[in-house]
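Annual report, structural modelling task.

Input specification for the adenosine-5'-triphosphate complex:
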Amino acid sequence: MAVEQADAIIRVRDVTVRFGATEVLDKLDLDVKRGEILGFVGPSGAGKSVLTRTIIGLVPKVSGQIEVFGVDLDAANAKERRAVERRWGILFQQGALFSSLTVAQNIQFPVREYLKLSQRLLDEITIAKLGMVGLAPEVADRFPSELSGGMIKRVALARALALDPELVFLDEPTSGLDPIGAGDFDELVRTLQRTLGLTVFMVTHDLDSLHTACDRIAVLGDGKIIAAGTMAEMKASQHPWLRSYFHGKRARAVVGSNTGVV
Ligand SMILES: Nc1ncnc2c1ncn2[C@@H]1O[C@H](COP(=O)(O)OP(=O)(O)OP(=O)(O)O)[C@@H](O)[C@H]1O
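The model returned the following structure:
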């Protein structure tokens, strides 16, 4: 395998996705590198969730190729595909916990799907994952309706980490959280990425997250990646959408708060 390919955990090439006559992704190319947190931004409705869902196989593409961990997911047989899926974790928008299951049952759900383990071991894994995301063991027996929004996000992250993935997809993980809760969550993602060596693909609208958590940013517009690079590169871009996003009123507020300037 070429070095270049080995370093791209996700490799998207020439991917087109349509719903009826509407083309959402148009021959899109994107690499997500090993060990990075990639922030994926773009206007509302641009297709960020669609790309995420296409990569994980929930949305069919018209054409193009997607490799994850060097495996072409179209060419893979069911067993090979399952082996790839076993190596990633997903936190969907809104947390998406099963409301009729306890926190423990939610976290154990993906583990049961792939592994046959004793209940004792499953309970140990649950407590360990809750600890990783900063939650006490007592939370295990609660139902999602008994949790705050921030706790739901943390439990959803614990579930995404249940199988010790190398790659995690986070779809707007800080949406609905207050700025302090969102900041804490960004810090948690950053710490986990560093300590576990995770690669993170994060769809976000949160400028704070882009500043504090992401190594690189990719911007989606008109069905393609219109820019990809560091925050400094995004800020230097003359592209109109990037200029208004990274230099607009909200962006100035974020930069101000990051530097302690009010
Ligand atoms: N299953 C579907 N059937 C038809 N159209 C769809 C489907 N899923 C998404 N779309 C359309 O694809 C476009 C992109 O949607 P998507 O949810 O990916 O946007 P997004 O960039 O994630 O937006 P947001 O930032 O608001 O979450 C939208 O126009 C949406 O209506």
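The chain has one domain: 35-59+86-246.
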